[in-house]
Structure formats: C-alpha cells, structure tokens
Design a protein that fits this description.
Blueprint (H helix, E strand, L loop, with lengths): L1 H30 L2 E7 L14 E7 L13 H4 L3 E2 L14 E2 L12 E5 L4 E3 L9 E7 L1 H17 L10 H7 L8 E10 L22 E6 L1 H12 L3 E8 L2
Parallel strand pairs: 6-10
Antiparallel strand pairs: 1-2, 3-4, 5-9, 7-8, 7-10, 8-9
Protein name: Flagellar protein FlgA
InterPro entries: SAF
Keywords: Cell projection, Cilium, Flagellum, Plasmid
Length: about 250
C-alpha cells in the first residue's frame, strides 16, 4: 500500500509541477511585472491625427518596454495630436513620436519654419510663447508713432508691465478702423531672444520671462512668407497678437 501511495504521490507532484510550470509560462508570467503601453494599432502616416481608431493599449513585460513609453495615463498627450514621423503598426509610442502642437512643418503642404527678424516687428506681447496661435497686423509708417505713444501711455498706467495680453479688440482700437490682420491663425514654432535662446517662463519667477523677444519663428508656406515680405518691403511693420495659448 505504501508503495502505491509513493507512486501516486510522485505522479501528483509531477502533475502539479508541470501544471505550475505551464501556468507560469502561459498565464502568470504575462501578469507579473508588466506595464500597459500605448502602441500603434495600424501603420500611421506622418501628420496623421492620433485617435482611438489607430491606437490601442497593450500589456507587455516591463523589460520589453522602451524608454519614456506612454501609458493610458498619457492619453491627453496623445489623442487628437499628430504623428511626428511615420509610425509602424505595433510601435510603442513615446513623446518624440507625437507632434503635440502641430509644429513640425508638413513638406507635402509646402510648409517650413520661417524666422521673423526683429527689424520686421513693430510690437509683440511679452507673454507670447512657443506653440501659441497668432494674428499679424501690418502697421504703416504714419501710424507707427501714434500707436507707440498710446502703448507707452498704457504701459505707464499698468506700472510698466510688459506681460499685458493685447486682444484683437485692443489692437483694433489702436490701428485704423478698417485695418484687419494680414495673416490669421499662424502657428508660432519658436520665440527667441537676442542670444537665439528660447524665451520661456523663468523657473525662479513664473511671471518673468527668461529673455526679451527678438525673433519669432513661425510655420509658414510660400504664400505666408510672400505676404510678410510684401508688406515689410513697403515700410510696414508687423504687430503680432496672439489669439490663444496652447
């Protein structure tokens, strides 16, 4: 009897061991130390919008996750944004694959990054930053001095604050009544100071900028650039007003 008991016990332990091994390999292994990542559900072309239809969430072993992978918690960073490059099906998403503010020029549409030099600029809000959407007004020679004096007066009333946001209505009051923006909804790709550094909020004081705006860079095409060159070559200067922040 003891002999049979030992044989049965040995068989049971063997079956249990095999069961544990199979359970680990085909079930538990994939449940332990895994992470959820956002991957491309299909091939996604450069500049395509990232949506719930072309993305999905997958659980993978942590050791197989790439650096800086995006998780379901990052859904706001991804959805309705644009692919920064062509993305193959199954690719794990990370921040550099996502053109968050649509600031990468689409060459197929003739887009490029165009610098707006300081000498073209009449006035720019000190709070303008990268990724804002802006309108451009053309200010003729005869109106430039008048507007400068009004802006200077307003600045004194506001204790010389340079962070005053100029709205479309305020600009319309400063320029002639029939003056309309020559360009609208322009994407600002960069805001630089005299040292070619990006102007942003100071880490020490969030109300202060890290530099004074000297040059803007925008997403343009031939038509936009030709419009700017036409006005500035005829003595106009550009009054830049941002419509909203992003």
């Amino acid at each position: 009897m003891k002999k049979y008991f030992k044989i049965i016990s040995a068989i049971l332990f063997l079956v249990l061991g095999v069961g544990i091994l199979f359970g680990w390999e085909f079930y538990f292994k994939d449940k332990i130390d895994t992470v959820e990542v956002i991957v491309a559900k299909q091939d996604i072309t450069f500049k395509d919008k990232l949506t719930a239809d072309n993305l999905e969430v997958k659980s993978i072993r942590r050791e197989n996750a790439i650096s800086n992978y995006l998780t379901p918690n990052d859904v706001d960073v991804v959805l309705n944004k644009y692919a920064a490059i062509d993305i193959k099906k199954g690719t794990q998403l990370y921040s550099k694959l996502v053109d968050t503010y649509n600031l990468i020029p689409n060459e197929k549409k003739g887009e490029f990054v165009a610098p707006i030099p300081d000498e073209w600029l009449f006035a720019v809000p000190g709070s303008l930053r990268k990724a804002f959407i802006a309108d451009f007004y053309a200010i003729p020679d005869e109106e430039q001095q008048v507007i400068q004096s009004i802006v200077a007066s307003d600045s004194e009333d506001e204790n010389d604050s340079e962070d005053k946001k100029l709205t479309e209505e305020q600009v319309s009051n400063l320029v002639s009544k029939d003056n309309k923006p020559i360009l609208q909804n322009i994407r600002v790709s960069s805001v630089k100071d005299g040292t070619n550094g990006e102007v942003k909020e100071s880490t020490e004081d969030t109300e202060q900028a890290t530099g004074e705006i000297s040059t803007l860079e925008i997403i343009a095409n031939d038509e936009i650039l030709s419009t700017l060159q036409e006005y500035t070559s005829n003595g106009y200067k550009l009054y830049v007003v941002y419509r909203y922040e992003r």
